[in-house]
From TrEMBL:
Zn(2+) binds at residues 221, 284-285. Binds 1 zinc ion per subunit. The keyword Transferase applies. NCBIfam families: PRK09485.1. One of its GO terms (molecular function) is S-adenosylmethionine-homocysteine S-methyltransferase activity. InterPro entries: BHMT-like (IPR017226), HCY_dom (IPR003726), HCY_dom_sf (IPR036589), Hcy_S-methyltransferase (IPR051486). This is Homocysteine S-methyltransferase. One of its GO terms (biological process) is S-methylmethionine cycle. The gene is mmuM. Its cofactor is Zn(2+).
Length: 304
């Protein structure tokens, strides 16, 4: 497979990613309490998403991660919306991120990552933090296939296959990617050094080793303190460049639909992530433009 533009950037890295899109939208007063989360704005207020992407670019991010994380046919149908509208929303998410890139400084250095979130995210009940779906690899592959195909054809530079909480879903997504020719990064979410479903996280990284389309492997949506050890495992077991974008340190209460704790992402930790193999670094939930600005400046001053 020909080296993608994003893979080439990783080789020259490190690449600063963006932060929590929903975090920034909520800070600007948008109500994301529905089951569609930030995907609702793809329908109701698309320019709010363009503005948020532009804000992260202005903070130094080189990647805009699309608002497609929560979009699926089953999720839209559960909200009384059509499968056709879900497909349109997936494509629109890439178009909006590309619009933001075109308006940014030096767009030729910037990337659009199409977010492919886990099955559990579309249930809107915190299942992505448990991974207890009760679905096998085949059923998960079949569920992901339509949104994968739409995003793969939408023109993004890379797929962000992210916040994957269990081995069955990692395997399903690896099967979709293998042979597709679509560059992607694979990022799992973990706690206590294991997948959210309690499995050996190194097994998830090993599944990615022989998938040429996967250009980076790592972790997101987890406590920052866990990043160095897990990134080292990702590097050793997958043989791929690392990607890391943890939360601020707070934890999500899926029942109360609120964040607990007083997180404060300390960018002084980032050199340890680089030493462990990170070639792309950003933030996930509760990390806004200020955090990304600090990460970007650190990467520019001390590129590993």
């Amino acid at each position: 497979m020909q080296t993608s533009r994003f893979a080439a950037a990783l080789a020259a890295g490190p690449v600063p990613l963006d932060g929590g899109l929903a975090t920034l939208l909520e800070a600007h007063g948008h109500d994301l309490s529905s089951s569609l989360w930030s995907a609702r704005l793809l329908l109701d207020d698309p320019q709010a998403l363009v503005s948020a992407h532009r804000e992260f670019f202005a903070a130094g991010a080189r990647v805009a991660t699309t608002a497609s994380y929560q979009v699926s046919v089953s999720g839209f149908e559960a909200a009384g919306l059509s499968a056709e509208l879900a497909d349109r929303a997936l494509r629109r998410s890439v178009e909006l991120a590309a619009e933001a890139r075109a308006a940014a400084d030096r767009p030729e250095l910037l990337f659009v990552a199409a977010s492919l979130g886990p099955y559990g995210a579309t249930l809107a009940d915190g299942s992505e933090y448990r991974g207890d779906y009760g679905l096998d690899v085949r059923r998960l592959r079949d569920w992901h296939a339509p949104r994968f195909e739409t995003l793969a054809a939408a023109g993004a530079d890379v797929l962000a296959v992210e916040t994957v909480p269990c081995l069955a879903e990692v395997e399903a997504l690896c099967r979709l990617l293998a042979g597709s020719g679509v560059p992607a990064w694979l990022s799992v979410t973990a706690a206590g050094g294991r997948t959210r479903a309690g499995e050996p996280v190194e097994a998830a990284f090993e599944l990615a080793r022989d998938v040429d389309e996967i250009v980076a492997v790592g972790v997101n949506c987890l406590d920052p303190a866990e990043v160095p050890e897990l990134l080292a495992l990702a590097r050793d077991r997958s043989g791929k460049p690392g990607v890391a974008y943890p939360n601020s340190g707070e934890t999500w209460d899926g029942v109360a639909r609120s964040w607990r704790g007083s997180g404060d992402l300390d960018v002084a930790q980032v050199p340890r992530w680089l030493a462990a193999g990170a070639c792309a670094v950003g933030g996930c939930c509760r990390v806004g433009p200020d955090g990304i600005r600090a990460i970007s400046r650190l990467l520019a001053a001390d590129p590993g």
